[in-house]
Amino acid sequence: MAVLVLLTACSTDEEPEPDEQVIEEAGPEVTITPEPGATEVAPNTPVRVAAEGGTITDVRIDQVDPSAAGETGDGAVEAAEEPTVHDVTGTLNEAENAWMADWNLHPGSAITVTATATDDEGEETEVVSEFTTQDTTEGQSLELVSNFPTSGQTVGVGMPVIINFDLPVTNKEQVENSMEVISEEEAQGAWNWVSDQMAVFRPEEYWEPYQEIAVDLHLAGVEASDGVFGVSDHRIEFEVGREMISTMHVPDHEMEVSVDGENVRTIPVSNGAADERFNTTTSGVHLTMEKYESLVMDSATVGIEEGEPGHYRLDVDWAVRTSNSGEFSHAAPWNSGNLGSANTSNGCTNMTVEDARWFHDESLMGDVLETTGTDRELEWDNGWGFYQRSWEEWLEQSATGEPQNTDGSGTPGDVHGEEL
Predict the structure, then answer these.
(1) How do residues 217-270 score in pLDDT, each as one tens digit?
(2) What is the Cβ-side half-sphere exposure of residue 344, based on CA atoms within 13 angstroms?
(3) Are the C-beta atoms of residues 29 and 53 closer than 8 Å to each other?
(4) Labelling 51: which of 12, 75, 218, 364 has CA 20 to 30 A away?
(5) CATH architecture of structural domain 141-241+390-404
(6) CATH 3.20.20.80 is held by the domain 27-132
(7) Contact criterion met (CB below 8 Å) for 114 and 201
(8) What span, in angstroms and rounded, lies between the C-alpha atoms of 100 and 302?
(9) How is domain 244-373 classified at the CATH fold level?
(10) Of 349, 371, 376, 413, which Cα lies nearest the Cα of 278?
(11) Helix (H, G, I), strand (E, B), or coil: what is residue 23?
């Protein structure tokens, strides 16, 4: 027994045998924020992944809306069988050991972040973080009301992207950066705000014809104003058709229509008489907005009421709108004697029935009408007069102040709610 005790005492100063050593777990150390188990996380909190001793190889974000889940017999919420996987892309740093989500999280959701990293020896570590995001409250949810164009439409080369929201947006930079425009033919564009509830994207120059364009509205989780968060993402897909550009020098009394660079029709017209401002055809870059086979044109819609000088109410055919101040091209058989020779209209572009019908049938929303020769300039926010702002001015009026490339490389800046 004494010998045994002695041996035991002596062994404490020696290194343990290899099979007694503590073996550290192989693979890099991975951390995810927000931390596991967090609740009521603000939806615009960025998801981050960091790897020590390795590089990040994969990050997946699953988002489950509890309203889509079932309820067990004891009242507990049961997760949906298949989580909703939203395309939350992220950006790696140059060393590939830090990753941050490009977009925000959906409000009121159960979030699962799964991250994988690998070290130089090929050892892999996978870490999972589960947490929940704060839900929106009644009257504090930003939603899409309407958009132009809509998915599936074919439009002209001047077509802007117009987004209308249900609530005012004050954090315009974050919302702009949440809306990505992607085109087959790379271009530069930017957003401007016609009002706190209407954002408009236009390219620097007209779109290249014959291409498809997608608009990804990553609105879920963006804080549009204090305490107001977007609730849903949306995708709009449309096509730019042929290039139809019409030109008018008003004193010449004709419209030249060009398709893909080739003149296809010269139309005799009569424009505004221009003895008053209201009946002066505006000069500038107009876009075709909507069209009607028949339309009642009432000057009361532009502020000239019945009984006032200049009031009119006419039934017209084959009308194509080019501004919000009452300008259309349309058939005017009553004015046939002045078509091609004199300007006598109330500001519209009068045509023969045949020419008006042809122009109506050939027009796409977003076609270009460039008008010159009058002393009344089209305002940039009159209808879709967005090309009335120079590109430099348009870019300056963007909340980001930077162009957005439409090559799918992302938006110019941050969508999250904190300094990064």
Answers:
(1) 999 999 999 999 999 999 999 999 999 999 999 999 999 999 999 999 999 999
(2) 12
(3) yes
(4) 218
(5) Sandwich (2.60)
(6) no
(7) no
(8) 50
(9) L,D-transpeptidase catalytic domain-like (2.40.440)
(10) 376
(11) coil
